[in-house]
Every structure is written in C-alpha cells, then in structure tokens.
TrEMBL record:
Record has Transferase as a keyword: no
Matching Pfam families: CRAL_TRIO_2, RhoGAP
Ranges of residues in domain CRAL-TRIO: 69-224
BP-aspect Gene Ontology terms: negative regulation of endocytic recycling; small GTPase-mediated signal transduction
The organism's place on the tree of life at top rank: Eukaryota
Record's protein name: Rho GTPase-activating protein 8
Source species of the chain: Neomonachus schauinslandi
Any one GO molecular function term: GTPase activator activity
Amino acid sequence: MPGSPRGGIGKVCLGRPAQQQSMSRLDLEMLAEIELRKDEEQAAALSIVRRPLVVPSARQDPVLSMNHPFYDVARHGILQVAGEDRFGRRVITFSCCRMPPSHELNHRRLLEYLKHTLDQYVESDYTVVYFHHGLNSRNKPSLGWLQSTYKEFDRRYKKNLKALYIVHPTNFIRVLWTIFKPLISHKFGKKVIYFNYLSELREHLKYDQLIVPPEVLRYDEKLQKLHKGRSPPPAKTPPPRPPLPTQQFGVSLQYLKDKNQGELIPPVLKFTVTYLREKGLRTEGLFRRSASVHTIREIQRLYNQGRPVNFDDYGDFHIPAVILKTFLRELPQPLLTFRAYEQILGITSVESSLRVTRCRQILQSLPEHNYAVLSYLMGFLHEVSRESVFNKMNSSNLACVFGLNLIWPSQGASSLSALVPLNLFTELLIEYYEKVFSTPEARGELSTGVPEAALQL
C-alpha cells in the first residue's frame, strides 16, 4: 500500500507514533544505521552472505562503449530500462545489489547519470522499480546525498513518474520515510507502492521484460521459503488457447493477412493510423501519454471479437495512440524481427554519413510483409514528426517511444546501453523515411542532414 512500507523480513515496528515524533533527526539517522546493519544480519541468517561486491564489467555488456559519457557508472549495471508496464509506460529499474562500495563509486556521478538517463523519458509517463536488496553499510549513499538528490529531481521528473515500486522493503526504508516525510508531497507519496515479493510485480508489469539481478532472485526465493516453510509451487500456466478467427492482438502478421483477404496492413494499425492522421496529428505529447488499462483492455476485447471500435466515444487521442503501441508490443515477433536485433545494435559503429545506407541494407533482409507494415508505420510517424511544432514529437522523441516497440531480443530484455543504437536506428527511419524506403532506382548515398544524435554517437 502507498506510503506505508512493509518489512521484507519480519514486521516493521518503530514503536509508538508519539515516540517517533519526538525523535530528533540525529536519532533517526542512527536508527537508520542500526536497521541497515540488522538487514545485513538477517540476510546472513538466510544464508545470503554479502561478500565484496563483484560488479558487472563492460565486457558483460558488449553494447556499452568505453566512450559513454558515464561509463564509470554505467558499467556497474545499477540502472536499466526494462520494457514497459501494463499501462504502456517505460520501466526503469534501480538495483542496489549492483552498487559497489562507496569508495569505488562517485555518488555525484551516480546522480548525474540518473538525471542523464531519466532526461530521455521524463517527458513521457514512466515507472521506476527500486530493488532494495543489496543495500548495505558499505555501499549506501549518505543521507545528505539522498536529500540533495530528491531536491534535484524537480517537478519535471516527478510529474510524469506514475509509480515508484519498492521491492523487498525493510525497516530501513521505514526510517528513511520518516526522515524524508517533511520533504515528500502527499501527491508524490501516493505513487509509492511496496512489494514484499517479486511475484507481486507481475500484476503491474510485464515481468518477463524486467532485468532482475540474480542476487535479488535468490533473496526472493529465500524469503518465500522462510515465510511459507517451503518453496513456492511452480505457477501453473494454462495451455495456450487457439486465437479467435477475428483475433487482432498477440497473433502474427501472417495470421492477420490470412484472415483479412490478403491485406498486408493489419486492421488495428490501419484504423488507428487513419484516425490519428485525420484528427490527432497535432495532439501535444502524442504517443507519450498512457491511458487507463481498463479502457485499453476493453478496446482490445472489442477488436479481438471482431466488433467495431469508435474512438470518438472515448474523447482522448492518447487512447488510439496507446492501442497502436500495444498492437506492436504484443506481436509474437517484433516488427523488425529477432534476426535484425544484432545488426541494429551495430548502427552506432557506422560512419554517420553512411548510416541511412546501412539502415536500408538491414531492412532489405526483412520479410516482405514486415517491410510493408514498417514502411506504412514509419511514413505515418514521419508525418507526426512534421507537426512537432504543435505536438512536440520530433523524430528523436518518437524514436524514444517506439524503439522498444519495434525491436527486442529473443530472450530477456534490452540493456540500457542497447537503447542508444535501437533509438538511433528508429530515429533514422523516421527522419529519413523517404531515403530509407525509396525504390532501388532512387536510392542514393546520404550526404547531409544527419540527425545531431547520429553525429554524436
């Protein structure tokens, strides 16, 4: 429940409210230290011994370049962007267990890296998942750093943060909440939700897209055993049901083509694009906002049952925009295909003047059907970008939204460093639509007009 953290091990209990109110800040800081050491002792009791941290190196993430402006922090893997939640909002994870000892990490640089990462998403609705397990007396930032960090994240960062999920909270979190309560607005406090177990995340997020550190998985398993006395039973997955004849979501492009008299462009994509082109092109923040999950599911049900959908009935242009993204995200295979994933990751190593040519080469390997659908979609997004004076959605902003909806790896989720080439590739497709999707006779080398991002990366 929001604003009231529960203990990850045992109950959260700080005494009577009157005692809490009479405690000085110094007392609370000392209590926080005590609770953190208790967390370490309890973790040891669960046979989760926190040895000196072995942080991920750059070699474990081949996409991360040593030229990354925050390579010294990014190489640890503390921060990841992990797909989207069930509302279509970008998910960013923070893993305490990936933090090295304080003397090995410049916390000011960590703050700058946090802001650098969030700056790419704060104009859209987003969600943060904080994995608390792994924070200890050796790697924790100072309370002064936490306070200054909260103050530096101004309204621009807090406004579109729709949920902050704290996983495996302990008494230490409760003490922090008491210390920072005078700084935290009631509105922000309602966004904070606490989960004792990873399984609780499944109701809110696409769990298979999350990048959960192995240490957190092991800790969660130990907690389950401790509280239930046995290992949790394996989840029973019902056998997959055959799709309805009118199914539109979660089925392949080929299935949709076969059910629609050979039409290449899927009906959902065609209808949402047509509607937005006619009525919503100048909607500010188009594709950035989320929508009610109940409404989205209702519309999906109507489409899957072959029933008509009238977006005018909903009075919100962001709803068809979310439906379009949801359709792409629920394809069994990404529109750009699993096979193209590694090729796309290499786009940043291509000389900037040759990147559009390289995009064309990659797209030539796509199945004809995928190419046709992609061309249709990119043509529309190019139109959206041309109205950016009104909708604030230029090709770069659209790429940040659509990158992970067009391509993802066959296993796991894309790492944070992979987003740079994925988004750049998408930006090139949108910005240079006419050059990328031109006929072979009209294709020529790109000479000028490369996006600023393409020149810098």
